[in-house]
Structure prediction request, 117 residues.
Amino acid sequence: QVQLVESGGGLVQAGGSLRLSCAASGIPFSINVMGWYRQAPGKQRELVATITSGGNTNYADSVKGRFTISRDNAKNTVYLQMDSLKPEDTAVYFCKSRHQYYGIEYWGKGTLVTVSS
Prediction:
């Protein structure tokens, strides 16, 4: 059974930091591209950052220089370090896996991040 479980969300003041974690099970983690996405109220889900099995990263322009994605293949976990948070970062943050060869995707249920001004 595949599970992606996000944690680390919460309420933080603008300018603060949070670290999200996504623990994966039931997938060959080391050969999955892992990503963080977010969905703000009334908006579509959008890409935040991705990291390949080789450690190559990609970021949305809106978070470049503030967010850092990383992964620990030994722990089957992907992280999102979020610094200099802004109220517009408020959203539910989702973790996604994608098998790098077969393209099979799985989503977590999300964790809420609220940034107050």
